[in-house]
Design a protein that fits this description.
transmembrane, mainly alpha, membrane, about 45 residues, transmembrane helix, single chain
Amino acid sequence: MHDDDEDLIRRRQRSRARVMALLLAAFAILMFAITIVKIQGGGAL
């Protein structure tokens, strides 16, 4: 493999890793928010 090909692959992997990290963080925040709402008595969800 050429160095250029490896650089391209690494950049794509980093990009995918960032997207997955953002999605995971968004999911965690959503679960936290739902939990807080349910604890405060808005459990109609």
